[in-house]
Amino acid sequence: MHTIASNKLAQLFILLKKQGYAVIAPALRDAAIIYDEVETPSDLPVGWTDAQSPGSYRLKKREDDAYFGYAVGPHSWKKVVLPPRMKLWAARREEKGFTISDTTEAPRKLALIGVRACELYAMAIQDTVFIKGDYVDPFYKAQREKLFIVAVNCAQAAETCFCVSMKTGPKAETAYDLALTEVIENKRHYFVAEAGSRRGAAVLAALSTAIARPAEKTAARQVIRKTAASIKRTLDTDGLKTLLYENLAHPRWNDVAERCLTCGNCTMVCPTCFCTTVEEITDLTGDHSEHWRRWDSCFTMDFSFIHGEGSVRSSNKSRYRQWMTHKLASWHDQFGSSGCVGCGRCITWCPPGIDITEEVKAIRKNPA
Amino acid sequence: MNQKTAKPTLAVFKFASCDGCQLTLLNCEDALLPLADEIEIAHFLEASSAVLPGPYDVTLVEGSITTPHDAQRIQEIRKQSKKLISIGACATAGGIQALRNFKNVDDFISVVYAQPGYIDTLATATAISEHVRVDFELRGCPIDQKQVIEVLTALLQGRRPDIPSHSLCVDCKQRGLVCVTVAQGTACLGPVTHAGCGVLCPACERGCYGCFGPMETPNTRALRTTWARRGMTDAEISQAFKGINANAPAFRKEHDAPKR
Amino acid sequence: MPAPPRNPPAGATSPYLPYPAEIVEKRLESRGVYTFRLRFLDEVRHKNYDFRPGQFNMLYIFGVGEVAISIVSDPEIGETLDHTVRIVGNVTEALNRLDVGDVIGIRGPYGSAWPLEAAKGKDVIILTGGLGCAPVVSVINYITARRDDYGALKIFHGVKTPKDLLYRERIRAWQKDARTEVYLTVDHPDHAWQYSVGIVTNLFTQIQLDLSNSIVMMCGPGIMMHHAVRDLCSRGMRMDQLYVSLERNMKCALGFCGHCQMGPNFLCKEGPIFRYDRIRHWFETPAI
To answer: What is the ipTM of this complex?
Structure first.
């Protein structure tokens, strides 16, 4: 482990850019911290934090100059590997029939800075969907291979976070190139850095660092421990799959249906939700056609529409039930893990503030 | 199509409206010329005084029905149209002029007009679909350029237009925008509003005004609760539903809810 | 049993790309139902294309989009690749406007297959209702072409009115086979109707079923299948002898788009054909 002085963080950005990476990192926009392309560490939300609760997110000033002193915001990294809209292929009319050309774009080299532990898990979960199944999504795989991941161990959790009970955080444990822990002491501000790959080690070696002393390592561990201890929200996953499978007719689904707007926000902000639909875009001449994919949501009527029969899930209740049981139960059967990483986005960004952990508790309290 | 070689004909008719939707079509500069290559514009007074008689392959209807004469005229237009598409909030929900539906129209007439005797109007402003069969309703105040071109393109190619009826939120998040309700406490009709505008207002950090009317399954009651928890009064919330699409059934019902 | 084939093989190329194929024959089966015989423009692809009865393809109509359609021809007659299509939605309506010589796109095959190996030597009971019976036609064709490998073949087909009856010609051909029995029923008969009236399950009482040595394959409206399962089980049939073909919205057929889920199952992967005991929990839950 090494330490990087906070005023040397710029070197990391410069080095990554020199290696051809565009740097995507947290940035302030529209009263929130989102992920965007940045140039230098000064583009980060320095000295800002967030206060989150069900249905509410507010930026707040910190008393220090922390670079990463906030929890996850409305964006997730899935937008990088699974763009909200993407052209899959194009077709051109010919004298006889048509020709089809693969329009899968070449991925950019991207350095993601500030990836949290829960988000690393979310990426691993999407890898299972798009790379490890019977079929491979070519863009996802290619883009995934072009990522340099700088993880950040959380020094601050939101009130909506519940990674501890999901065993996905707050310490980065899976597949990163570099992991940073930000330490702010009385007079010192530094990062304890750990390489998680050969590429990461090479980058670390090229920066101005010092070997981390025991006290510094302890300080970093303390940061993570304190964060973990601050996370009060829990989701009890014990026997959860069976519980939900056996409670598909639970009255709680009616209750949540009254509160649910079926707006789809939870699915859009979720870092693992992967559902998409396709659209055919044609020009007026009718000679060109493009096959696009866009994010979709199980909360739309079209999602389960069958010709001649209508939507399978026409009620709010059935759509919320589909989302939650997929996320917490059937995901295990499909992909061998939970589909939830405890990031809390669906709780914060649900306008009525529906809380998935509360919904589980309500069913657990009074199961069928 | 009239003949195999002839281009399909397009007609545009106006009822009680501000012409904004027709202007949207006229403003489709990049698409207008290719459109003219594929379609014969047979009746579009805002664009050309040259008028061809019906029947028409595709008819776009802007505006709501507010007079006995218009109620007759739309029947005739329906008979002349193979496909009839109502465009905009007036044609699909009655428009802003449907605020009259909440009051007694005679009271307005006596206040607004010096000689009320000349006024021959209906008690309500209503959507085209309340008078004749409509093949497709394109929402918006005004309609969106891309969407109107998509509808015409789809018709030309014999496919269903790709006009999603989900909430504005889906499009908002796909654009990477931040929820103004959650991050700023701004009242936004997005969660109950039909997508299609391109998320104009939230992109400027404003709440959605519901210009595209109710989405497919609007849970307006849940939105009322959401706003009430943030300190809005019942009257303020009702007022928010009483906008451009006040007469859309889902919005009207929620507007009236506290009174019941 | 080996896994059903996939074309193209995983990883060979973008799995999203359809391959052009020509319509070489278009046959009216019944009101609003056509069978399209297709041929890949690429001869090698056509020759190497392999599938199992019950699997489906994604058919692409230029400028309109894709739709999942089951394959009804015999996999061992390499020349033919038939799809029976009910004209009911956006893409199928566009397909219906095409004719012999027109080109569409194909990618596939996808999904699970009927248990034709497991059914060898046994009686096969086919149950179809409504208009959704195309997936079982592949089985009937397959068995009638290999008559000695199977026991009795009993086909039960129920529709609303005589006009909705599919495959009149084929039914006549099936009826000619001594070991094939065809039972037809309608909800609303006309004066010319010479078969049964009422729901399909009523017919079970009229005939002898060798339940211990039978496999049932069914496809049709949910309500019909629910009744049939209940009826057959009450007569002593085990759920693992029953197979159902199900339908869901499908956009990618690759397990990516999420639309075709039914509980933990992706219909494009684990389905569309399920052994009943494996799908029961989900099939019996409304709006799942």
So the answer is: 0.96
